[in-house]
Design goal:
By secondary structure, the protein is of the alpha+beta class. About 35% of the residues lie in helices and about 20% in strands. The strands form four sheets. Strands 7, 8, 9, 10, 13, 14, 15, 16 and 17 form a nine-stranded mixed β-sheet that branches. A four-stranded antiparallel β-sheet has the order 3-2-5-6. It has a two-stranded antiparallel sheet with strand order 1-4.
Length: about 375
């Protein structure tokens, strides 16, 4: 056998689910030739290489690729193992010889079509948003969706978690006796509870949800809780309509561009550090620009003279001596001036007249005079 990716080989051999295998590889639980491998894209050859999981040697045998359709009942978890011990798909598909896994998810309260396969490339092709594989649902909503509401959802959509979601098609099917409605909705997004959120915010909560188609695969008359194998004609039709090439990595271009972008970002961040950054530099000198040095020198100003030299200037000394000779007169001499005495006497006479008037009238004294 030619070399292939470790993740793809383990999934094709039915070791575990795609999610669990990826997590175990990242945790370093897989060894190839006694070497810990944490890269899911590591190339291995099962005919030559020895693969171990937690020191247990694995007998890798590539299973035949199988494809099935399953009609999930209400109240079943779309997984093979549930820590809460709820009903899982394992109870319904135990008779399938190959170890198959569900493609995508259908929530606990929903029912309808699920694709089961052990083909990892086929699984990735269906769940990848860029391939735009349509899914058709039958919804029972509360009330009736008006023509204006239907057109608004189909044209403008609705914002969910910062992303605009636009259903591809909304068709009215029938009305119930309680005033509710059945509608058929086609979408290409695969986010969790997307349809329940869309119609809840539109004022028409979903009461029942059933998936009837994934791409060209149809539920038709498959009973609830039963499965059937996909025929070769159905598989060929799907591959032809959605241009799926078997054996080729349909997401290779996208993965390559992502790796290239990540590498470019890492190179951009890891710039070499110059040794000159750690050396002290003269702020007035620039090695790269000689004209800068000339301008810096021309702008440099002479140092300021010491304060002692400034005071020793002859003109400063003369002014200091002049000021020292003319001393200010005492405050007492200032008060002894004759004109000052006259003004003080006139003010005292006015104050005396005011006191006499207050005493004569009998007004209480309210301030100091």
């Amino acid at each position: 056998m030619s070399q292939d990716k470790l993740m793809k080989v383990l999934q094709a051999a039915g070791i575990d689910s795609r999610r669990t295998i990826r997590q175990d590889i990242n945790d370093g639980r897989y060894l190839v030739n006694n070497r810990v491998i944490t890269d899911p894209n590591f190339m291995v050859d099962i005919d030559k290489d020895t693969v171990r999981h937690d020191d247990k040697k694995l007998k890798l045998k590539i299973e035949k690729k199988s494809y099935f359709l399953f009609n999930k009942p209400y109240g079943v978890v779309t997984t093979l193992q549930d820590p809460q011990e709820r009903t899982t798909l394992t109870e319904f598909i135990s008779r399938i010889k190959e170890r198959v896994y569900p493609v995508g998810r259908l929530d606990y309260h929903s029912e309808g079509l699920i694709v089961l396969t052990n083909d990892g490339d086929f699984t990735n092709f269906i769940i990848s948003a860029k391939n735009k594989i349509p899914k058709i649902y039958m919804l029972k909503i509360k009330g009736s969706l008006s023509e204006e509401e239907r057109r608004k959802l189909s044209d403008k959509g609705i914002h969910l978690d910062g992303v605009r979601v636009i259903p591809q098609r909304i068709e009215f099917v029938k009305k119930t006796g309680q005033g509710n409605s059945w509608i058929r909705v086609t979408i290409v997004e695969g986010k969790k509870h997307i349809l329940r959120k869309v119609f809840k915010y539109s004022g028409h909560p979903v009461e029942k949800l059933k998936r009837t188609a994934v791409g060209t695969f149809r539920l038709k008359t498959l009973p609830v809780g039963h499965w059937r194998e996909i025929t070769q004609e159905e598989l060929d039709e799907f591959k032809r309509v959605y241009h799926y090439e078997e054996g080729s990595n349909n997401n290779e271009g996208k993965e390559r561009s992502v790796r290239k972008t990540a590498k470019a970002r890492s190179l951009k961040k890891a710039r070499p550090v110059s040794k000159d950054l750690f050396q002290k530099k003269d702020p007035h000198v620039s090695k790269a620009r000689p004209e800068r040095k000339e301008r810096t020198e021309s702008k440099a100003q002479p140092k300021r003279k010491e304060r002692t030299e400034y005071r020793d200037r002859p003109e400063r000394k003369e002014r200091t001596d002049y000021n020292a000779g003319s001393e200010r007169k005492e405050r007492t001499e200032y008060r002894d001036r004759p004109e000052r005495k006259e003004r003080t006497a006139s003010n005292d006479s006015r104050v005396g007249k005011g006191r006499a008037v207050v005493k004569k009238i009998g007004v209480k004294k309210v301030g100091k005079y």
